[in-house]
Amino acid sequence: MQMSGRNVNVNSVFYAEAYHPVQAGSIDGTDILPHDNAVYRAFLCSSAGLYDPLGDPKLIGDPYCTLFVGHLSHLTTEQSLRKALSKYGRVKDLRLVRHIVTGASRGYAFVEYETEREMQRAYKEAHHSFIDDSEVIVDYNRQQLMPGWIPRRLGGGLGGKKESGQLRFGGRERPFRAPLRSIPYDDLERLGIPPPPEGRYMSRYQVPSPPRRKRSSVDREEGIHKRSMERGANMRKSSPVEKEEMSHKRSMDPEDHSFKRSSVETEHHRNRSSIDRAELSHKRTSRDRDDRSHKRHKSHRHERSTSHDHY
């Protein structure tokens, strides 16, 4: 597909959903050769499977609720970091990465929240905020949630400083630019590099969404049941005035009117049926009484005629 400036905005960008070292070293995600030694080292590490993203014994907690915080001040402590990030939600666990020998802060941390929603809020609002006079960046836990991830210490990562010359693209801070030249799809497929998306580009002002947990039907049913239980508890806790207002609203609801009409009609039909049964029973009783009276009268006449014949 030929990409040109006529059909793609030069300010359009896209973000990596899976990690590839060669693609991360490309400004538009179309390179097929490493452009520096670090990318080449990360490519060899990825090809040989030398990095295990789940091999860190310090990895704890739910990755979908965990936030990466970088560019921290070396004066920031666990207490000050927890205090700064608690305004976005309830912090369940926090790990400030420190040097194994000196114990000094490495300038980044992992923060786990109680729920995924709280993590999403911190992901949107805490980015480029200030903690201890240092402008921090936040991202989702790419180590566990991004397929093929290679860390910075092995030549991978995302971002980087211009002075180092080892820029990495595709992340939140430095996304890929929309390619303005033809895309070598065959070469990208041969190397296993994800091709740029077709037509799914964003502006730099849009916030890329982190991966979301795939919810099963059981989880959805549990969520619905939990919400219904919460609504029931709230109804039980509501004051008599609120209950009266709720009943008034239901009485004004046309669906409730139809329900009440149907209930009234059913009751009327039930009463009518009982009246009909009573009338039918009365008619049967009257008819039986008339039959018995007629029989007695007939028998009496027969006896009189018989006695007359006898005398």
TrEMBL record:
Compositional bias annotation for Basic and acidic residues: 160-173, 216-230, 239-293
Bias (Basic residues) ranges: 294-303
UniProt KW Transport keyword: no
Residue stretches making up the RRM domain: 65-143
Keywords tagged on the record: Nucleus, RNA-binding
Pfam families linked: RRM_1
Gene Ontology process terms (BP): mRNA splicing, via spliceosome
GO cellular component, as recorded: precatalytic spliceosome
Signal peptide start and end residues: none
Sequence segments annotated as region (Disordered): 154-173, 187-311
InterPro entries, alphabetized: Nucleotide-bd_a/b_plait_sf (IPR012677), RBD_domain_sf (IPR035979), RRM_dom (IPR000504), U1_U11-U12_snRNP_70-35kDa (IPR051183)
Compartments, as annotated in UniProt: Nucleus
UniProt-recorded Gene Ontology molecular function terms: mRNA binding; snRNA binding
Name of the protein this chain belongs to: PREDICTED: U11/U12
Organism name: Prunus dulcis
